[in-house]
Structures are given as structure tokens and as C-alpha cells.
Amino acid sequence: MLDKQITCKNCEKKFESNFQFCPYCGQKANDELTLGVLFYNTISNYFSFDARFFKSFIPLMVKPGYLAKRFIEGKRLLYIHPAQVYLFISVVFFFLFSFISRDQVESMDKNFKETMHKADVIDSLDVKDSIDSLETKEIAESNKLKNVVTGVVEKEGIGASDTLVNSITGKKVEPKTVLGFNKRIVDSLTNIGAEEDRILEAMGMSEDPSAFQHKLYSQLLKLYRQRNGGALVQAFYDSIPLAMFILLPIFAVILKLLFYKRGSFSHHLVFTFYFFAFLFMVFSLLIIAEFLVEVPGFIVTLLMLSTFFYLFLAVKRFYGQGWGISFFKANIVAFTFLLFVLPLAAIIVGIGAFMFY
Asked: Does the entry feature the keyword Transmembrane, yes or no (predicted)?
């Protein structure tokens, strides 16, 4: 007697009811949508968060180079895909890092505003000490002085407060610089409604600037006016995940140059994905530990050193060369990346964050 047939809700094909999964598309026969199923499917489909992850995690942490070697040998269903394990662990890391960066952003914003406020206070006190308040009020009401101040600001780029002090008391007031320019000049030009390009030139921009220079000074003026240094730091942190996707292939290129006869570029990229996943996992565990207890400095130092020894052992296992040559090449990879690639990337990311924050 034939079993009763049911229709798959996914592919709409009929099959016998004793099947737990559709033989045509693989969907579960009785796949009722519950809250648990919804979140499990979301995680498992996006990150492949299944038994393969747990099978991959321990070798990733304690067997340097093992997963990469197994993957290029063809064992690709037993372990999680290198790009997926990197994606999952990096998401966890940046989630944890966001708590630290938030405190740093708030601290930077507060310190920057306090610094700018102190500069304003000192500037106002200097002018107050140099000019009698009553005399200044009477003189400022005259059109003659107004014309003098405006004319000098427009023609010579001298701040209005400096002009008042110099014209009334004959006492030289040193210009107050902030962010690399004279704040009194900028404030004076802003107060009289000068065009932005005129203000930017007073800040140091050339008369015929390139698009990059114009944008640079515009952002500097924006930072001065808004006084939100924390937003600049946040923009830098937000750029790091994107920068890492650029650094990954660069790291693989370094490996390719050193091991040009040891597989294609994709092989080196597989190694890179697993190695960076290990790095993010170590940093994630360190952040978690910092939340719980204050980690001593020497422990942090040992963890940083352990990442190099992990790289050394991974290179030895994955590329199969001798201990000496593996140690030598691991040093070249580490120093090239840390001393040249990473600083250059930080500079580029910093400039990009400043230009577009």
C-alpha cells in the first residue's frame, strides 16, 4: 500500500509522507515557522553556523595552518569555508570593538570641545586685558573703526580682535593658532560674512587649489566649526572593516611573492582568511577578558607575540618547508606587513575618514 503523498511547500512537488525532507529540494517536510526556527535559519544560512563551525574552531586556534592545508587538499565539506569563518569572527570582533570605540569617541569629542573652549577663553581674556572695555565699546560704535577692521581683514587677513588691539593700544597681540591656522582670522572673516573660499585661503589654502586641497581645507573648517572630534574618530573606526578587505589580498600577495612555487594565489588567500580569522578571534577574546578583569600588560604582550609564533607554525605546516626557512619567511611577512603595509593603510584610512566624515 502506497503511503499518502504530500506536496512540498517550497518546490510544490509531491512525495510520500514518510519522508522527513523533500527528495527534490531538500526542505524539511513539516517546516513550521517558529521563532526558534526563524533565528536558527538566519544564522545558519548567513554564517553556516552548524557543526562545521565547531569542528573548525578548535583546529583554527590550536593547529596553525591545518584548516588551510585541509581545504586546498579538497576537504571542503568537513570544515567551514575560510571566507565564512573570517566573516563570522570579524563581525563578532567589530561588534565587541564597538563598545570600546564608543567610549573612545565620546572621550575624544569631550576633550576636543574642552580644548577648543579653552582656546576661546584664553583668546577672549587676551583681548580683554589689552583693551579697556568702555573705550572699546565707544570706539566700536564708530563707522570709522568698523571700516578699518573690515578693510584690514579683507585685504591683509588680520583678525578683527588683533586690529582693535593694535589700533587702540599699539600693543602687538600674537595670533592664536588652532588646528594649524589663526583662529582670530577665521572668526573675524566668519563674523563679517566672508565667502568660504576667502576663509579657506586665510587658513592656508592656495588661491588656485586642487580639488583635493579644497576638500581638505573645507573639512578642516567643518571640524573647527562643528567641534566634533569624536565624529572624526568614529569615521576612522567605521572605515576599518572595509580596509581589512583590502589588506587581506595584499597579505596574500606577500605570501605569493615568498612562496611563488607553492600554489596559486587562491591558495595563499585561503591561508590568509584563516590566519586573519585567528587574529580576530584572539583580539575578541582579549576584549572579552578586558570587560571582566583588567588584563596585565605582560599578558597582552605575550598574546601579541603568540600571533607571530602562530604565523610561523602555520607557514611551516601549510607550505611544508624547513624550520629555518619557514621562520625566516614568517619574519619577512610579519615585518613587511606591520612596518610598511599596515602604517600606509592607516594613513590612507585616516585621510579618507577625514575627507568624508
From this structure: yes
